[in-house]
Give the backbone structure.
Amino acid sequence: MRRPLMTVAALGAAALVLASCGGGDGGGEKTASGDDKLTVGVIPIVDTAPIWLGKEKGFFKDEGIDLELTKTTGGAAAVPGVVNGEFDFAFGNVMSVMVAQDQGLPLSFVTNGTTTSGEEGKDFSGVVAPKGSDIKSPKDLEGKNVGVNNLKNIGDTTVRYAVEADGGDPSKIKFSEVAFPDAPAALSKGNVDAAWVLEPFLSKAIAEGGTVISWNYVEMSPKLDIAGYFTQDKKIASDADLVKRFQSAMNKSLEYSQEHPDEVRDIVGTYTEMDAKTRADMVLPKFTPEFDRPAAEQLGEAAVKYGTLKKAPDLDKLLP
Amino acid sequence: MTSTSSRPLRSRILAGPQAGALGIIGFLATWEIACRSGLVDDRYVPPASRVLVATVQYLGEGEFWRAVGRTMSGWAIGLAIAAAAAIVLGIVIGSSDVLRRGTHSTIEFLRPIPSVALIPLAVLVFGTSLRSTLLLVVYAAFWQVLIQVLYGVGDVDPVASDTAKSYRLGRVARVRYLVWPTALPYVMTGLRLGAAVALILAVTAELVIGGGGLGELIALAQSGDAIDKLYALIFVAGMLGVAINVGMRAIERRTLAWHTSVRGEVAL
């Protein structure tokens, strides 16, 4: 069996070449001024505005942290990035980290990231039915095709919850994957009967005649936390002081962002391609340091009920 | 066809670059008309004129050029690694009947695995760094070149091969004077195919994984609802593909100037 081994060996050699042509980053490094270098993986969307704003305001520098933000285009790189040590922390939604924990990955949140505004009619997440649709309330989604950005995550779980709360049968909804940017077009073309959409595409879908038939985050709980910054459990144990300083800078950033929505809209322009009008029109999430435990419990229960999770999440471990 | 002067006038005017340019103008005009006439919704597909404006705006931005630089370095390094590995392995495997038969099924099994299926692996091992992109680019381009090299090596004239042996040419000399010149046209074809595939994978990797480059800019434009910029970037990616193809053809003509496939166009 020498022959097949040759190709494998060659691929292995190629992988070694690849592995050697770049330095490994990760925690533990210090800058010349003695600050700790931290790399955080973030998705370039409005939800991560506080960390960008906090960096600009020097909140991290004040805590002796030299913060480097790496954009990850989808959520695809966030969990693997933290697991392989490329990121010290990463931004991820609550359900994704619950799923990771459910599958045995030792990951936990260190700070909150975004929270629903808690107001129906003024949140950054909703389920939209196109112009002229006969879907008027969540229970009408029964038997319909609903677009969500990915399956078995926070979108379908909260939509199922909203449908059941409205008296519908959540098992009769068909979900298909539609990315948020594609949702307005998918709705107006009739590819889906309704779609779960986040800002800035929610405003766009409404402007094109769509109607929000469910404010799915608010309906789950008006205090539902959507996403936060997570890391490996072993880092929380071994780098307790650094984690604490990151938490303190991050909490300050969240509070500052909540008080200065105009600065949030401005900073979003520096790391996304959203134009000024889109930024001015969009509804912002709420930024608050504290996780709401009852809301997370409720989300966890719903996730178990609808099969997103195998067992209830261990919130003592998951939340800071 | 004995000389160019006997070709009809029309085909001479529409030769090479002019025909290409006309094709592009026609394409842009069709695009513009399709959008302006409402055939396609300009909220989702902006007309060519708006995309060209966005493209020109990009040309003045440093960030854009850094992104192009990153994409092209992923492409170039990846293609170089893939080509070097594939040429060496191809000649080694192709020169031995035993090796060739022994590796055949393995190659046919590994070759059709889509490079993008390796994205989760790449992210897990290399994160968002350039190495992730390289893994995908090298994997995709490697097979394109390898298969061509194998065909090329297999194409060596048995009589020439026997002659070389009876003149007691050593292994190295045979590769240098017999195998390499025979395989070279195939190698160039493999490189040209590999170069195109490498660009596709470089952009795909950045689009899905992030970490910089044109692909990441495309993802940013998409998630920021900047439709004009989105299409401008796609247009730029297309132009890079054209530039790469033109460049590879030029290299091919130069390296194969002695070969009948290239000489033939002029002399026959």
